[in-house]
Amino acid sequence: AETESFEDGSPVVEFFPNDVKFLNMTLKDCIVNAFENNYDIKIANLDPSIREKEIKIEKSVFDPTLKFTGKREVSEEPTVNRLVTGDVGIQTINITEFKRDTNMLQTAIEKPFETGALLSFNFNLIPREFINPSPFSPLNPQSRAFIELKITQPVLRNAGVFYNRSKIYIARNNKKISVLQLKQTAIEVINNVQKKYWELVKAVEDLRVRNKSLERAKDLLRNNRIQARVGTLAPIDVLEAEEGVAKQVEGVIVEEGNVANREDELKQIMNLKRGSVLSDASIIPLDKPSFEIKKVSLDESIEIALGNRPELLVQGLDIENTKINVK
After folding, report:
1. pLDDT digits (tens, 9 = 90+) for 214-267
2. What φ, ψ does residue 215 adopt, rounded to 5°?
3. Could you give the CA distance from residue 171 to residue 166 in angstroms, rounded to a whole number?
C-alpha cells in the first residue's frame, strides 16, 4: 500500500491486489463465482444455442430454393445420314460434318412440402441453337423458350408429414436434452461447491481446535516447568509435556496444510485465475453449519428424485428419439 496525505494531514491509503490476504465468502458467494468462471458451466451453456440452430437448419429443408443453370454444348461429328445432310436422291455416299452449337439457360424455383411433395417451376431458355447442315429447319440459328410447372408427391417412400418432420422433432428433443444437461452440470457444480465449502469449514474448525490444544499443552508445559523448579514435580513430567507440545505443533502444521488444500480445491471449482485478487487470498468461510434436525421421507425423496433428476429426463427423451427413428 502507498500512503499519502490530504491537505489537512489525514492519511490516504491505496490498496493494490497483492495487499488482499483474506477473503470473506459465504456459500452463496462461492456458488456465484463458480457459475461465472467454471468452464463446465460455460461449455454446457453454449449447447442449447447450438441445438436451436439445428432446429432452424431442419426447418430450412422446406424453404423454397432458386436455381440458375447455364451451359453450352458444342459437337461436331461425321455423318452419312441423308436425313441429316439433306442429300436425298443422291446415290453416292458423302461424309458430312454435322455441327451443333447450343446455349442453354434454366431458372428453377423449387418448394418442398411437409407431405413429401415437391413443387417446381422451371423457365428454360435456349437463346441460340445453331445446326449445320439443317435441311429441315431453314431458321438457323434459332431461339426457343418454354415454361414448365410440375408437382411430384411420393405415395409410399418419403411420404407423410411425420416422416418429413421427424428430424425437426428430434432436433427439438435434442435442445431439451441440452437444457437438461446444463441443469445437470449446474447441479453437479453446486454440489461440488457445497462439498468443498463445508470441508473447508470443517478444516478451519479442526485447525481452531488444534490451536486450542496447543495453547493448553503450552500451559501444561509452563506449569510443569515451574513445579519442577520448586521440586514438586519430577523432570520426566516436563519432558512428557514438551513431547505433548511437539505433537500439538505437528497437528497444527498438518491442519494448516489441510486448510490450504481445501482452499485450493474450492478455488479450483470456482476457477479463480492465477494472479487475480482472489487467487492468492485465503478464503474465510462465513457460513456455519446448522444443526437443525429435519425429518426425511424415503418414499417422498424417491418420488421427487424421479420427477426432477435431469439424467432421468434425458434418458426419456433419448427413448422418444429412438421411437421416432423406428416409426
Report:
1. 999 899 888 888 888 888 888 888 888 889 889 989 999 999 999 999 998 998
2. -60, -45
3. 9
